[in-house]
Specification:
The protein is of the alpha/beta class. It contains 16 helices and 13 strands. α1 crosses α16. Bound molecules: beta-D-fucopyranose (FCB). This is Beta-glucosidase.
Length: about 450
Amino acid sequence: MTIVGQRATEATAELPANFLWGVATSAYQIEGAVAEDGRTPSIWDTFCRVPGAVIREENGDVACDHYHRMPQDVELIAGLGVDSYRFSISWPRVQPGGRGPVNAKGLDFYSRLVDELLGKGIKPWVTLYHWDLPQELEDAGGWPERDTAYRFAEYAGLVYEGLGDRVRTWTTLNEPWCSAMLGYDQGKHAPGIQNFGASMRAVHHLLLGHGLAGQALRAAAKEPIELGITLNMGSAKPASDRPEDVDAARRADGLGTRIYLDPLVKGHYPEDVVADLEARGAVLPIEPGDLEVISTPLDVLGVNYYSSHVFEGGEEPHEPVAVSQNLPVTAMDWEIVPQGFTDLLVRISQDYPGLPMVITENGAAFDDEVDENGVVDDSDRLSYISDHIAAVGSAVAQGADVRGYFAWSLMDNFEWAYGYDKRFGIVRVDYDTQERTLKRSAEWYRDTIRSTREK
Ligand code: FCB
């Protein structure tokens, strides 16, 4: 057996035969065609125009031109032999401005995508919100405003009307932590606001929007749907057993993981986090009945994992400091910590029992080198992915209920504030010609999936 073949066998040894394999993308990162067929601007179209917000002032105007190349891209996906494709729907394409009737042309794009996928035996895994809020809703206050949650549920219902006869799996939100913290607290993502209080209001309204949308989908569904939400998480460990470090890890875990999972699964916010917020003058604007809505039963938890951190207490107790673990890093400067992945999955299965998980994103950016034939021998990415699939296997062996894995990403794409600089694809995109070329990691992924079917 070759070394890469051996890696495949080792990586997948613990995974069940019916494990779901997929690749993932999101609308703004790949589609382009931002002004076509009635689409209106999202907060990302606006943010990309703010000087200095995105590296080299890049934007998603063209991206991977997927809007015009969708059938060929589905061919590409089919060639990888995956079971499922996770993509997101652009809200301003389907409901321009975030209010009012559906834009039939916009919805039709996704309807055709779903048909192409199903025609090739690939299960569509829909994410309703991957960060592209219609700009008009941001102008009306965005996620810190309660009404946005209701608008989101209405939009979910419109999408369901168009696709619900063929789509079974629905993820409401992708990574609400990023929407709230990067968008409204750190200002590194759209809409670029720096206001901690606003970010906490956003957290609550994102969760409320998730619950309302989930209820709207279930009410509209004739057949049972599979309802999920995707969270980005890592394992947060203290640098030492000094009380400041232990407290820093508790706080990082509180605002990173428990503030989402506790209300979603247990129907209440964690008390220690609420107390920390109070001390900072921030409030979760809970109204009667909200927590029942937020804890609408989940069928699956989507887990996005990239790295894990070790924390030290900082100058301000509420500012945990991530310290270096002296581990190799990816091109994002994110430390490579597969053990943290295993720890996270085992921990979730213990703290939130009975919740099946699917890895909805995992992958890595590296500075790819292209040879004269256009080949990218990305052994660094291949190792990252195989080591992390093996980490999922160890968690499964320890009892975690993990049912699938989606590689981030199908292809190189617009990496938010990093523009096109960081390449996460297992398929290379030449942005001058829009040519797609399988990297070695894609070939390995395809062969690995095939080998698990022969088990
Ligand atoms: C996640 C996002 C995804 C991509 C990866 C690298 O936080 O969901 O869109 O940017 O990171």
